[in-house]
Design brief:
Shape: globular
GO molecular function: Delta24-sterol reductase activity; FAD binding; oxidoreductase activity, acting on the CH-CH group of donors, NAD or NADP as acceptor
Subcellular location: Membrane
Keywords: Membrane, Transmembrane, Transmembrane helix
Structural class: alpha+beta
Number of domains: 2
Membrane topology: Single-pass membrane protein
Radius of gyration: 24 Å
Helix content: 25-40%
CATH topology of the largest domain: Vanillyl-alcohol Oxidase, Chain A, domain 3
EC number: 1.3.1.72
Number of helices: 23
CATH architecture of the largest domain: 3-Layer(aba) Sandwich
CATH class of the largest domain: Alpha Beta
Amino acid sequence: MSDAKASPAPVHSKRKIQLVDFLLQFRWILVIFFVLPFSCLYYFSIYLGDIKSERKSFKQRQMEHEENVKEVVKRLGQRDASKDGLVCTARPPWVVVGMRNVDYKRARHFEVDLSKFRNILEIDTERMIAKVEPLVNMAQISRVTVPMNLSLAVLAELDDLTVGGLINGFGVEGSSHIFGLFSDTVVSLEVVLADGRVVRATKDNEYSDLFYAIPWSQGTLGLLVSAEIKLIPVKEYVKLTYKPVTGNLKELAQAYADSFAPRDGDQDNPSKVPEMVEGMIYSPTEGVMMTGEYASKKEAKQRGNVINNYGLWFKPWFYQHAQTALKRGEFVEYIPTRDYYHRHTRSLYWEGKLILPFGDQFWFRFLLGWLMPPKIALLKATQSEAIRNYYHDHHVIQDLLVPLYKVGDCLEYVHREMEVYPIWLCPHRIYKLPVRPMIYPEPGFEEHKRQGDTKYAQMYTDVGVYYVPGAVLRGEPFDGTEKCRQLELWLIENHGFQAQYAVTELTEKNFWRMFDGGLYEKCRRKYKAVGTFMNVYYKSKKGRKTEKEVQEAEQEKAEEESPEVDEPAED
């Protein structure tokens, strides 16, 4: 035996307690007595509006849509470019679902009201297309389509997420390993351009360049007023299998990949690839992988099958229910399809635990669970500047899009630098397209024939990091700004992408290292967005934006770029 003494464990300094810590500790009082009741009233009013809309014929909705589009065009025509600020929607900054501050609206701007654009215009069962306006949210569309045994090909989990946000930004769901991101399921886009023209963009018409440039552009190329989106047939239930896995983070990542990506490369074989996939990492050594298949009511009702009516208000939060597989072992249950789609809504994944520390307890779920979730917009509206900044510095909400073969590296990085658990894993394809949009697969990926990849798409994973870092939970110092900056550099080095709803520390140079701006900037010039709509970097940038800063940046960008207009990309 060696006589050498074991080195002492490192001593970590403690973070100084601030007033904002106490405000957050007792914020649940405000949430219970103000945010939850008003959220309930808000959701109910929206529901009544949706029902009123659904009672109208599709023809009447389309006529109202056309009138509303004319109003938008008229409003844009009233703008004096020499006097008015840049164009943005009239939605209050706190209404946006996302963590980043919508500080660009603090600068002088020219508002265009799109609040009327919240109708489902058509469900075409022959073309398998849903035509919807941008403020239609996931709860609204699933309430209409699921009873018809139909669904959007990619239906994001949270009720409040809107079609416009998912197209102009990004959206992912458990079927994205088959269909790609939400924007990949779009068939056509109706857009009002800066000069007032109303155009319909598809992947193979004269506006194909605009069609490919709009995703991730954050509404900075034009005003989206409707979209046609792919529908798929579904059944009444989802047969969901929960499989616990143990090992180190690399081994958990491999088990996750094996849950949906055949090692023989037969990725397009439906007999080998589940229809829904999701993974959750609960610690550096434990995770649960979930795979689902649509199932008929007849199958679900067969003797011996377990049905979990997860939509009931008192049910355990989904991430905690899935975690029970670590003790009970692999199990299977049938969940009503719409309940499955919105399984993370009530608890806002696991962020609900921070908002209401006792919100997952049975007594609360039984008595007040029907009020959940709190409206994200109301949570933001009741935040002070100090609380908002505190969240930015001591809390992480990031969606990291990384190649499937680098998920293990990403998990190790997040554990080492942030130590945030649980972690959400959701696979998705990034397609090889005839043009290069803002996000794109690794050049030459198809030559490596890696697990999950095909000749036409590279398999990525959304690594969802949402919670308080371990250091903060232990009362230790944590530099959220620097950690975010280093994480973004890691993504750039590993051909990853950061969801733009999140807080970012990217400089403009690094922003365009992460995202490809070629097609985007061509469309900015061609469709006269420069000088009318804010550049996507400045819209995503952290911190307050002054009118002078934005206008000077736009002018500088315009002077740097060639005045020549590129022809639209051809398929």
